[in-house]
């Protein structure tokens, strides 16, 4: 009966109730979509970093993990690669030989990381081959070929087919010079990465170094981050003499983003709901003041003050939940639609690439976030209703009834 009375009271002033309903719905719709944009941006940033270079995990020697010197390579890395096939959680693994050096052209020179790869395996763990914008990727038929980033090509004023000279130390510290012809130019979401990383075939790098096959890092890829976490536990036990680190250890800034983003979004939505709280309080206070005689009559004929208080709380919570449910439903539809097509921010791609952010943002919100916002909406509604309800129960029934 109390709920029926509360429901009828909501629609006594239909226009005011609809305005409040629309305000709550639109506020949550825009707030949730903004949160989905920020969450999607963070997820895209993390996924892009993993696909571009990090992988889900990497294996190094313990010494190389703290001091990236070329002589600190993994011994018998082929056996380790073979052993990784025994982990169901690992979908692919690829070795890398990493040498710090210089790249020079007739126009300029700059410091770079030279990555020696096995192209067929590298394709399975990183997305560089998908980001080629000019020329092609390394293959078995290409000799003295190199793949460079677009930013590096611009810095050195070179293009596809141009020659570039690399200089780097061998395992004994002697400087080696070698000329390569650009086979392809790639562009990722990170301009800093594109400016400092070049890729050549590992076999050619071994020849230049005059050494046996060496590997400084093994990049591991899993079907998901959760699967990678399972694999890490076994790898750290099996390969205790090596450094086995997940992407969160390799890039602490990504871990911070992953852990902080949900908290930040809850704070952001809390601010939006705080603004709605004042609007709800004002609306409900007006509603109470308009029917003080009716409330006085109800108390005069025996309705307890606690039930009057509860009736106003129910009015507020019902209207807020109705508006909140509509806002969340509309947000769910909008987020899912935008999550399929993505939001194209290519007009700002140059600025975004300086922060390693993809120009295509795919909004996404985890399921727990909708449960969280439902609880926050109920708390907001109850808090907003307390003052108007308290105002109502403090009325003197006999004085109110005599009021014309």
| Mean pLDDT score | 87
Helix content: 55-70%
Reading the helices and strands in chain order gives HHEHHEEHEEHEEHEHEHEHHHHEHEHH
Instruction: Pick out the low-confidence regions.
Output: none
What does this molecule look like?
α2 packs across α13, α11 (252-290) runs parallel beside α15 and α13 packs antiparallel against α15. Strands 1, 2, 3, 4, 5, 6, 7, 8, 9 and 10 form a 10-stranded mixed beta sheet that branches. Strands 11-12 form a two-stranded antiparallel sheet. The protein has 16 helices and 12 strands. It has helices at residues 2-10, 14-54, 62-66, 77-84, 119-125, 150-156, 191-196, 202-209, 225-238, 247-250, 252-290, 292-300, 305-341, 349-354, 367-393, 397-401, and strands at 57-61, 90-104, 109-117, 132-135, 145-149, 163-169, 175-186, 197-201, 217-222, 242-246, 343-344, 360-361. The radius of gyration is 31 Å and the shape is elongated. The two termini are 28 Å apart. β6 (163-169) and β7 form a beta hairpin. The longest helix has 41 residues, at 14-54.
Short synopsis of the structure:
By secondary structure, this protein is α+β, with helices and mostly antiparallel strands. It has 16 helices and twelve strands.
Which features characterize this protein?
single chain; 404 residues; alpha+beta; two-stranded antiparallel ribbon; 19% strand; elongated
């Amino acid at each position: 009966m109390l709920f029926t009375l509360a429901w009828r009271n909501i629609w006594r002033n239909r226009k005011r109730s609809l305005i409040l309903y629309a305000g709550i719905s639109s506020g949550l719709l825009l707030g949730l979509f903004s949160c989905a944009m920020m969450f999607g941006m963070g997820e895209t940033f993390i996924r892009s970093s993993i696909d571009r270079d990090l992988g889900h995990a990497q294996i190094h020697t313990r010494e190389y993990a703290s001091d990236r010197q070329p002589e600190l390579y993994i011994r018998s890395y082929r056996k380790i690669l073979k052993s990784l096939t025994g982990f169901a959680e690992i979908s692919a693994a690829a070795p890398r030989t990493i040498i710090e050096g210089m790249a020079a052209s007739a126009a300029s020179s700059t410091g770079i990381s030279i990555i020696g790869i096995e192209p067929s395996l590298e394709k399975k763990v990183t997305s560089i081959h998908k980001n080629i914008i000019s020329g092609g990727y390394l293959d078995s038929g290409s000799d003295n070929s190199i793949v460079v980033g677009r930013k590096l090509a611009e810095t050195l004023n070179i293009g596809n087919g141009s020659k570039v000279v690399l200089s780097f130390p061998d395992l004994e510290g002697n400087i080696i010079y070698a000329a390569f012809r650009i086979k392809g130019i790639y562009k990722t979401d990170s301009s800093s990465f594109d400016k400092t990383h070049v890729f050549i075939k590992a076999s050619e790098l071994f020849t230049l170094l005059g050494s046996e096959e060496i590997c400084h890092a093994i990049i591991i890829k899993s079907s998901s981050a959760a699967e990678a976490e399972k694999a890490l536990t076994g790898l750290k036990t099996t390969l205790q003499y090596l450094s086995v680190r997940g992407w969160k250890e390799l890039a602490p800034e990504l871990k911070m983003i992953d852990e902080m983003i949900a908290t930040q979004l809850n704070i952001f939505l809390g601010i939006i709901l705080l603004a709605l709280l004042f609007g709800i309080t004002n609306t409900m206070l007006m509603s109470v003041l308009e029917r003080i005689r009716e409330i006085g009559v109800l108390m005069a004929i025996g309705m307890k003050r606690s039930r009057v208080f509860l009736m106003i709380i129910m009015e507020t919570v019902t209207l807020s939940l109705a508006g909140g449910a509509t806002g969340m439903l509309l947000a769910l539809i909008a987020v899912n639609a935008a999550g399929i097509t993505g939001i194209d921010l290519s007009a700002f791609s140059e600025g975004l690439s300086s922060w390693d952010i993809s120009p295509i943002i795919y909004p996404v919100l985890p399921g727990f976030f909708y449960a969280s916002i439902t609880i926050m909406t109920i708390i907001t509604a109850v808090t907003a209703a307390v003052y108007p309800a308290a105002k109502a129960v403090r009325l003197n029934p006999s004085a109110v009834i005599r009021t014309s």
